[in-house]
Amino acid sequence: MLKSVSPQLSPNSNSEVLVVRLSVEQEQLLEAQFGRVKNPHTTDLVLLAAETGLQETDVQVGSYDYPI
Q1: How far is CA 5 from CA 2, 14, 37, 53, in A?
Q2: Considering just the CA atoms, what is the radius of gyration of the chain in Å?
Q3: What is the pLDDT of residue 48?
Q4: What is the CATH number of the domain that holds 53?
Q5: pLDDT for res 68
Q6: Three-state SS sequence of the chain
Q7: Residue limits of the Homeobox domain (predicted)?
Q8: Does residue 52 lie in a domain region?
Q9: Whole-angstrom Cα distance, residue 56 to residue 45?
Q10: Of 4, 43, 48, 51, which sits most exposed with the smallest number of CB within 10 A?
Q11: How far, in Å, CA of 20 to CA of 43, rounded?
């Protein structure tokens, strides 16, 4: 099962809202990391992106869960 996540966009961003689909494994890794550290350092986000196979811009605090 995949969930849709809307990445946090910067306030001055004029781009459209992007949707990222997560696998169960990606979601578990993200939840575990953000459960331990609420505001991870940029280096942690880079490593987490590499672990999950996601883009660094997709691994951010402030994502929202939308039903499919």
Answers
A1: 10, 19, 19, 15
A2: 12
A3: 92
A4: 1.10.10
A5: 46
A6: CCEEEECCCCCCCCCCCCCEEECHHHHHHHHHHHHHCCCCCHHHHHHHHHHHCCCHHHCCCCCEEECC
A7: 21-61
A8: yes
A9: 7
A10: 43
A11: 21
Number of domains in the chain: 1
Domain range enclosing 32: 1-6+20-61
| Residue whose pair of structure tokens reads 């966009």 in the numeric block | 9
pLDDT digits (tens, 9 = 90+) for 14-67: 566 677 788 999 999 988 988 898 888 889 989 999 999 998 888 875 545 544
Tokens of 6: 């809307």
**Pairing status of strand 20-22 against strand 64-66:** unpaired
The answer as to whether 12 is a domain residue is no
Residue entry with tokens 């910067």: 10
In a domain, 66, yes or no: no
